[in-house]
Write a structure and sequence with these properties.
Immunoglobulin-like, elongated
């Protein structure tokens, strides 16, 4: 027998076993485990387009979990799954699903203190799902834990292991205000200013869209007085620092930002919040206004003020390092 043909015939059984092992989960056999199907979450819908899902979730004080709601192809609820602890950190979630098509809805950061949300039962439709921010008379003065959302259609094949990326978006924003009195040596207090944001978005549906047009008022959850020092470390100016948060900001919706000095009845700054924030979008950003508002989740607004005579006159506004000239926005008075 030809020696080359002899060696080829000897190798055939081994090659067959190797091919069978490589695709073993594709075959139905009582001794062979079924194929595994995995899911991993990602949060790249930010200004850096870098995946920040695991750091953002694990760094939260509480609510370090994802609620995964599983619906059939027609959108009827089947069951839910909570992902937390080590499974969240490794970010490789095994799905115990039969071959078929499913609709998946994920919300990360849900907690009873901040939110009220739908607890679906068997047969409930995915489009009936909603979440709402908890607030006393729709006024929110506490720091919200980060809230993320995602929805996708997933098809589990008859054979072969799968690992599917599930992209999420962030629905909470933080805005920090730094109010600096330009008069050197002037003492300031956190009671000198009233800061509030007003939006018509305090709830979201399964598609991450606002449900109602109820008015929500967002006030600072932290206030402090900080010093601005010269190069020798001597205090030159004092600044009132405040932070508030909002739910997802919607371009074109009714919203406003008000800042009032304690010595006056009317706010010295009364503008559209989203219009003010959108002034910071760089010309090179190839994205819509809504995409910018969704990707940019933190803002710093610095105001230089002259409070001589007990009233506040705004000298300059800086938002995220962008200087806003007074004729760029409608400052009311």
């Amino acid at each position: 027998m030809n020696m080359k043909l002899y060696h080829t015939l000897r190798m055939l059984p081994l090659l067959a076993l190797m091919q069978l092992g490589a695709a073993s989960c594709d075959y139905i056999h009582e001794d062979i485990e079924p194929c595994d199907h995995y899911l991993h979450f990602s949060y790249t819908y930010n200004m850096l387009s870098a995946d920040a899902f695991v750091p953002q979730m694990t760094n939260q004080e509480t609510a370090k979990q994802v609620e995964l709601f599983i619906y059939d192809e027609a959108g009827q609820f089947l069951r839910s799954q909570t992902i937390s602890s080590a499974e969240l950190e490794t970010n490789r979630i095994q799905l115990d699903l039969e071959p078929g098509t499913y609709q998946l809805l994920a919300w990360a950061g849900l907690n009873d203190t901040d939110y009220t949300w739908t607890k679906p039962e068997a047969g409930d439709n995915i489009d009936d799902w909603q979440v709402r921010v908890n607030g006393v008379t729709d006024c929110v003065e506490r720091e919200l834990l980060g809230l993320f959302q995602g929805r996708m259609t997933l098809t589990i094949p008859e054979g072969g292991e799968t690992d599917t990326e599930f992209p999420l978006v962030k629905n909470t924003n933080k805005i920090r205000f730094v109010l600096i009195d330009a008069n050197s040596g002037t003492e300031v207090s956190t009671n000198d200013y009233t800061v509030m944001a007003v939006t018509t978005n305090g709830d979201l549906d399964a598609n991450n869209q606002p449900i109602s047009d109820d008015t929500f008022v967002w006030t600072p959850y932290t206030k402090s007085v900080e010093q601005v020092n010269d190069l020798e470390g001597n205090a030159v100016y004092q600044a009132v620092c405040m932070e508030l948060n909002t739910l997802r900001l919607i371009d074109g919706s009714a919203n406003q930002l008000q800042i009032r000095h304690d010595g006056e009845e009317l706010p010295f700054l009364h503008v559209s919040l989203t219009d003010l924030l959108l002034l910071t979008q760089m010309e090179s950003h190839d994205m819509t206004a809504q995409e910018y508002l969704d990707r940019q989740d933190e803002y710093v607004i610095m105001l230089y003020l002259d409070t001589t005579g007990g009233t506040a006159h705004c000298l300059e506004i800086i938002v995220n390092d962008w200087t806003i000239r007074l004729d760029d926005v409608n400052l009311g008075r």
